[in-house]
Amino acid sequence: MTLKSAKNSDLHLCAVSGDANDALTQRVYAAPERPSRTAFQRDRERIVQARAFRRLAGKTQVFTSRASDHFRSRLTHTIEVAQIARSVAQQLGLNEDLADALALVHDIGHPPFGHAGERALDDCLKRHGLCFDHNLHALRIVEHFELRYAAHRGLNLTLGVREGIIKHSRDYSVAQYPELASYLLDQRPPLEAQIIDLADEIAYLTADLDDGVESGLLEIDHIREHVDLLAICYAQVEREHAGIESKYLFYEALQRMQNILTDDLMATTLANACAIGAASLDQVRAHPKRLASFSPLAESQRQQEKRYLYETLYTCNALSREHEKAEQVVTALFDFWIADPEELPPGYVEQIETEGLARVVADYIAGMTDSFILLQYAQVKRAVRR
Question: Which of 93, 189, 239, 271 is the right S-S partner for 1, CB 3.0 to 4.6 Å?
Fold first, then answer.
């Protein structure tokens, strides 16, 4: 299945309609209709106006936000994912507004310090028989923590967006998560949600090479030797622009690599849908496997680059030291507030009775930006010394 046919596909038959009578556009609390905007457009506005969304600007993607203004933050990464997801949805005839909203909200549940912070918070909670899952925390944010309306807690997002928050990157079982039973856990998510995790992969695989070179931790020639897709793209650009400085050839090669993976995602997803004769959302939901995927070649190239990034960037000595510091900060603060919960802000103290102390402490930490948690850590260290 070619990209050309993907651009003229009939996958709109499998798209979420977004109509007023569609179950996926329904909200927990009644909200006045706005004829000028779709339900998912309104969700997008509620998401970008949320405090948790704004805080993504101060949260680590790969490098700490204080390292350089040029490195991606969670917010800039989110915007890049949204660009890719909306493009894919448009070309496949899916619901662009739903895909856009899901891309914008997909990382809203991440704690400070990126995956290192998430691992540390999860380890802390495991000591109390709990765990930290950024998808489920994102749902708590939009359903409970955001206070934007007089009549209710949360953002009152549609069922379609709340389902996508949970299911865009993994499947949950009703047996293990009975509290999520209303989110159709026995069915695959719509294609608009399925494409988000892969758009996320495309965005960070491109961006992390870019930021890795910018940081000085990766070298262009070394990447070309070990990442086949980038090497192919670089060679094409070099033939067309002989004599140009290597970093500019590299920048354009990254764009071509992103385009190749995006085009492959569109064409392969369409081919998968056509192979099962999918002509409705119900058929997408009932299929045993997700239909959104890369081709075998693109998937092997993706895995090769991901291994390279883990071996040369994510686990390098410089970042390992940052990760160790992050784990130290998160663990120390978690233990401090567990031992002395009265030091928590009053609003969090009030929730201990219903949510439990460990979960409340984790919720407080997860909402912090990198700079704020370092400030809290410094204050706690001074208080302990006294």
Answer: 271
In 109-227, where does DSSP find H-type helix? 114-126, 134-140, 159-167, 191-215, 220-226
Task: Please state, in angstroms and rounded to a whole number, the distance separating the CA atoms of residues 104 and 152.
Answer: 22
Distance between CA atoms of 334 and 341, rounded to whole angstroms? 10
List, in sequence order, every residue forming a beta bridge with 327; answer none if it has no partner.
none
Among 24, 18, 153, 23, which Cα is nearest to 89's? 18
Angle at which helix 191-215 crosses helix 96-105, to 10 degrees, equals: 50
Torsion angle (degrees, nearest 10) of CA 185, 189, 193, 197: 70
End-to-end CA distance of the chain: 68
d(Cα 36, Cα 336) in Å, to the nearest integer?
49
Task: Give the pLDDT confidence score for residue 336 in this predicted structure.
Answer: 96
The tokens describing 305, both together, are 């680059």
pLDDT at position 7, please?
57
Cα 88 from Cα 263, distance rounded (Å): 8
pTM value surpassing 0.70:
yes
Amino acid residing at 2: T
3-state SS assignment for residue 154: strand
C-beta neighbour count of 88 within 10 angstroms: 27
Cβ atoms < 10 Å from Cβ of 83: 16
H or E stretch including 79? helix 74-92
Phi/psi for 252 (5° steps) reads -70, -35
In whole angstroms, what is the distance from residue 370 CA to residue 64 CA? 7
DSSP label at 314? I
What residue segments make up the domains of the chain, in order of their start? 3-379
Mean pLDDT calculated for residue range 330-337 = 97
Contact criterion met (CB below 8 Å) for 85 and 195: yes
Fold of domain 3-379: Hypothetical protein af1432 (1.10.3210)
Over residues 305-324, mean pLDDT: 93
Cβ–Cβ < 8 Å for 95, 164: no
Q: Which two tokens stand for residue 266?
A: 């569109």
